[in-house]
Amino acid sequence: MSERIVELSAADLAAKLASGDVSSVDAVNAHFEQIDATEGQAVDSADPHKGTDGLNAFLHRNREEALQVAQDVDQARANGEQLHELAGVPIAVKDLIVTKGQPTTAASRMLEGWMSPYDGTVTKKLRAAKMPILGKTNLDEFAMGSSTEHSAYGPTRNPWDLNRIPGGSGGGSAAAVSAFQAPLALGTDTGGSIRQPAAVTGTVGVKPTYGSVSRYGVIAMASSLDQVGPCSRTVLDSALLHEVVAGHDPQDSTSLNDPVGSFAAAARQGAEDGGLKGLRVGVVKQLTGDGFQTGVQQRFNEAVELLQSAGAEVVEVETPNFEYALGAYYLIMSSEVSSNLAKYDGVRFGLRVVPEGNPTIERVMGASRAAGFGDEVKRRIILGTYALSAGYYDAYYGSAQQVRTLVQRDFNAAFEKVDVLISPTAPTTAFKIGGVDESADPMQMYLNDIATIPTNLAGIPAISLPGGLAPEDGLPVGIQFMAPAREDARVYRAGAGLERLLNEKWGGPVWSSRGDVATTVRDFAAGAALGGK
Amino acid sequence: MSAINREQVAHLAELAHIEMTEEELARVAGELDLIVSSVASVSQAAGPDVPATSHPLPLQNVFREDVVGETLTQEEALSNAPDSQDGKFRVPAILDGE
pTM score, two decimals? Predict the structure, then answer.
């Protein structure tokens, strides 16, 4: 029985490409076959805003260019040229990252049809490594959301259950990796947008140290929080991709001028026998118990026990100021959103709506932004405008920045006692599409990010990896490791060590027990055509 | 903090340049009120001695070399413009009544 190309990890695929067992053209074709078999058909061929009856993970497919890059790689290999380790390994890119020659929409009507005249720095790095870009993945509009339901082009569906959300904002990248549409993807993480989707789709996602990956050419949401990072099915694969995209960039004034760490070496070390021996792990008391689903808590507790049995020293740590983190995050994030999104005014690019009569530019801006932005984006811009307005600035934005200091102090105190912190990534498994009534209580959706937000406030690195399936619903649970700033290697060491223990416990990766996604999509579409859900 | 009303949201929407219908103003006022009351405890969390953090990692005075880098051509810069004329962005009237 031959292993399916699409189920190979990026590291294994790279080895087969290097040895000549598989060509890059074959790899790209195999992934497009999987994409074609799982994306579904447009619900309404006249209206792209309704999405598809399948995964709907991709907003744009870049078939021609990807095949061209793959051909170049195969030719270069045949000529004996020295190539990057991941050359020829296909990748999907979140549609918040700009790519010359492909549309970039941020999943908003505001940028429908917009073609970036330049490449983001991370895009350039993928091109330099000769990694074929399969296409652009779906997200919550301008990365605002935890479910990908806020995309203006229809929701992405979770490959584990098509009636459920794949997390957000990077639900497209996570679903694509989970469903074998791509071995690797890039995401962005402002409050958990890489890690929470990884948790609910049974994949791996990493938010690097703030400033360690360039944000040049990444559509800004909240600039003091945003960070680009890798999505994959194994910890080692994320480490390999992280090394491709990290590094100083003079075009991003928040970019750290540090050498790129040896993340893959750290992952390999963590997965060795005794790789976790002596690792000091802190269980974050404030991120357990109340509010966490029973099965999530159960799988988390088992993971902690496994770490102990492998020689890690586990203690409990207190982070008392985390109770204010979610509130502080929503004030800081929305304030920065209101400022960053002011540029979408219908003047130089993006949607322009001209009302009847002889309107002034002000009315054109008001109408364009009313038509171009969805409800969640508007809600956050208005909240941010409120938090920054005269009379409220000190009480809200100023206080939130002080909380940021308190959260950093909590982390600093904890990291004096331990090497890494551990928590569940998200409080629940994937919920049903349409299952949260945000108008009744917008905070309910925001609570999905309760465990991921503190690291964004502090700028520190964190990983989410699959911890098994919750017994009550059979859906993936995510485990999160956090490390001090600039110590990203630690989350790879700890993550790869736990991944190995869990694979031994469950007899393989979390997805090995899942049914064939293409079949699931076919049945789902047939059911939908019959009028069922 | 007092409840957020429709008039406040109308003012914020004007500041943010987002036209809103009556229905939207009423809905967003309710939602904003819920969010703001949920995050109100933030203003009680820290004493006056706690400094504010605006940026997660301390980087100061970051400048790049003063050399011309990659730039867009005029054609590229205008390629996504909703309207342009004579190599410039074209916009509707700035002032009322021309």
Answer: 0.97
Are A502 and A306 spatial neighbours (Cβ–Cβ below 8 Å)?
A: yes
Which pLDDT belongs to residue B90?
94
Q: Does the beta-carbon distance from A331 to B17 stay under 8 Å?
A: no
- CA closest to A117 among chain B residues: B76
pLDDT digits (tens, 9 = 90+) for A88-104: 999 999 999 999 999 99
- Of the candidates A321, A348, A369, the beta carbon closest to that of B45 is on A321
B2 touches chain A (CB under 8 A): no
Q: Is A319 on the interface with B (CB under 8 A)?
A: no
Question: What architecture is the A5-325+401-529 domain classified under in CATH?
Answer: Alpha-Beta Complex (3.90)
Which residues, in sequence order, are CB contacts of A507 under 8 Å at separation 6+? none
Domain range annotation of chain B: 1-41
Give pLDDT < 50 ranges for chain A: 1, 533
How far is residue A30's CA from residue A460's CA, in Å, rounded to a whole number? 37
- Closest CA of chain B from A422, distance in Å: 21
First to last CA, chain A: 36
A432 contacts: CB under 8 Å, gap ≥ 6: A163, A164, A165
Annotated domain spans of chain A = 5-325+401-529
Which of A:70-109 have CB within 8 Å of B?
A: none
Beta carbons of B53 and A405 less than 8 Å apart: yes
- Note whether ipTM > 0.90 here: yes
∠ CA A130-A26-A63, rounded to 5°: 65
CATH of B1-41, one of 1.10.3710, 3.40.1350, 2.60.40, 1.10.20: 1.10.20
Distance from C-alpha of A34 to C-alpha of A36, rounded to nearest angstrom: 5
Bridge partners of residue A340, in order along the sequence: none
Task: Give per-residue burial for A280-302: e unless 16+ CB within 10 Å, then b.
Answer: ebbbbebbbeeebbebbbbbbeb
DSSP state of A172: H
pLDDT band at B2 (very low <50, low <70, confident <90, very high): low
The DSSP element (H or E) to which A24 belongs, if any, is: helix A24-38
Q: Is B45 within 8 Å of A408 when comparing Cβ atoms?
A: no
